[in-house]
Amino acid sequence: MNIQTSAPAKIILVGEHAVVYGKPAIAVPVSSLRAYAEVEPSSGGLQIASADLDEMVPVDISAATIDNALALTARLVLQKLAASPPEVTIRLHSDIPIASGLGSGAAVSTALARALCAALNAALPEAELNALIYEVEKVYHGTPSGIDNTVIVYEHPVYFVRQQPIQTVVIGGDFMLVIADTGRSASTRSAVDGVRALYDSRHEQVQALLDDIGELVAQARGCIERGQAQALGDLMNRNHALLQQLTVSSPELDRLVKAALDAGAFGAKLSGGGRGGNMIALVAPDSEGKVTDALTRAGAARVFTTILGRRARC
Ligand code: MEV
């Protein structure tokens, strides 16, 4: 048995948080950064070993409740396939930083679910796998929109509106993105809960911010399809300002955004849940080095570049 499966990280180009309230958002996979699962035969029932979390999770599908995302993923797969746990250990490893807005949880669950299917010699259609990973996201992230699991399972740029059929985005040019980590982990759940509290207490004001985000996402789709980087950058800047008003930025994120813009980026914004985690900057190829240096000098814990393009995948 020599099975390895994987799933990518993701970034949200525009529209996070507003997407929870039915507005569109655009997300793209980052195929160079992945979570992996490897299957090994074992004699101790189904076990999941997580190298990064330094834990070994035995999967007891008869337990009434499951308080571990990995065990829940395995249980849902077994239920879906009406299968008994195979005698294997599934070893997980992820290059995606945890709690940083890059979809680490959904990617690890997706890689695990694929490995378990493969160990059982079974396959789940992507739509069913996507629905299953969404169930795991719901248990661990409160009220997720479903965008993270969707872009990760399908590994394709998506224009996502909650509870609507998935729309793919046509990429009309090459867009170079520099991704920088504040080094501060942040819970998406608490950021989403924070926006909910604001929405409940200042409904009209927050609704107006969400409406503005929805409009700029629709415009951003046009820019992506026409290959207009400068115009997309302007929309990213507007999106960041609106996210600041939704209270999900942080001093570290704002510092990195400013550093990228000062160094010549077309646009920059936080990406994902915010309050820490990663930001993204859209750059021209000839300013990539300058922006990367500026982000490093401004305190980024890790900086890397990816290209969203007509041919290359992120
Ligand atoms: C997290 O990657 C994106 C949020 O909009 C939450 C969600 O859509 O579930 C903040």
Q: What is the chain-wise order of helices and strands?
A: EEEEHEHHHEEEHHHHEEHE
Biggest sheet record = 7 strands, mixed
- CATH topology assignment of the largest domain: Ribosomal Protein S5, domain 2
Tally of structural domains: 2
Strand content: 15-25%
Count of strand segments: 11
Q: What is the radius of gyration computed over CA atoms, rounded to a whole number of angstroms?
A: 19 Å
How much helix is in the residues? Answer: 40-55%
Identify the CATH class of the largest domain.
Alpha Beta
**Count of DSSP H/I helices:** 9
Bound compounds, please?
Answer: (R)-mevalonate
The structural class is alpha+beta
Shape: globular
Mean pLDDT: 94
List segments where confidence is low: pLDDT < 50 over at least 5 consecutive residues. Answer: none
| Second CATH tier, the architecture of the largest domain | 2-Layer Sandwich
**What's the end-to-end separation, in Å?**
30 Å
